[in-house]
Amino acid sequence: MTRLGKQLVFISRINPDGSGTEILTCELAEGYMKNDRFDLSCLSITNGTYIAAGFNSFVVKLKNPPIISEPVNKIVSLFQQLTSDERAECFTYLSNEMK
What we know:
The chain is of the alpha+beta class. Helices cover 30% and strands 32% of the residues.
């Protein structure tokens, strides 16, 4: 998923060596990065956080997150309880059904 900086809430910057994160100043978080494009990878479904990768990497949240209904939350919870083999079998089944 790709988003512009103005669509994100910047929480912290990930240190280049991966040793941790640092809190961002408001000027940096809301200033010049608003038109930069970032590739997002999910960090935490529960917390709604993502790693936004661009020139630097940041921990972010979406300003307008998608609405996830209660049934979807239940499906996610059940899926997380499956073994890796069971998950692979589900993916194979769903892939075949969507063709």
